[in-house]
Amino acid sequence: MEKLVGKMSFIRKILGKNLDSKVILRKNARRSLVARRYIPKGKVIEEEDIVIKRPGTGVPTEFYDIVISSMVARDILENEILKFGDFSKSGDWNGIKHRANSD
User: Fold this and answer.
1) Element (H, E) at 50
2) pTM assigned to the model
3) Looking at residue 46, what is its pLDDT?
4) Are 75 and 39 spatial neighbours (Cβ–Cβ below 8 Å)?
5) d(CA 70, CA 67)
6) Inter-residue contact 3 to 25 (CB < 8 Å)
7) With contact defined as beta carbons under 8 Å apart, do 32 and 58 qualify?
8) Distance (Å, rounded) from C-alpha 68 to C-alpha 31?
9) Residue 78 near residue 35 (C-beta atoms within 8 A)
10) Residue 84: CB partners within 8 Å, gap ≥ 6?
11) Cβ partners under 8 Å of residue 2, min gap 6
């Protein structure tokens, strides 16, 4: 048991001090923001409107804070994966959309 604990400590050192944050990032990897319910065109998105689900083919979870308070440019159905073009509020969307499409 002591060997196992020692090896675990060694692994934590190799992976870095932020192991817990890496676990959180991995948990949200390959996930997208999804409409929890129908969102009509022109509505400003609230936290209650979206949920995080797989697959990660839409707006990644890292853009959650930007999506909240963004205005919807079209009707979005319940359980529909959000895409970058679904928002009409500019903010920093243009730069983000460009960077996301260049990956």
Assistant:
1) strand 50-53
2) 0.62
3) 94
4) yes
5) 5
6) no
7) yes
8) 17
9) yes
10) 59, 93, 96, 97, 100, 101
11) none
Tokens found for residue 78: 């319940």
Check if the beta carbon of residue 33 is closer than 8 Å to that of residue 61: yes
Q: Helix and strand tally (H, E) in the chain?
A: 4, 2
pLDDT score for 10? 67
The answer to whether the CB of 34 falls within 8 A of the CB of 81 is yes
**Residues sharing a CB contact under 8 Å with residue 99, sequence separation 6 or more, in sequence order:** none
DSSP state of 60: B
Identify the pLDDT of residue 1.
74
Closest CA to 81 of 60, 97, 63, 101: 60
Mean pLDDT of each 10-residue bin along the chain, 103 residues long: 70 62 64 96 94 90 90 96 84 49 43
pLDDT at 99: 43
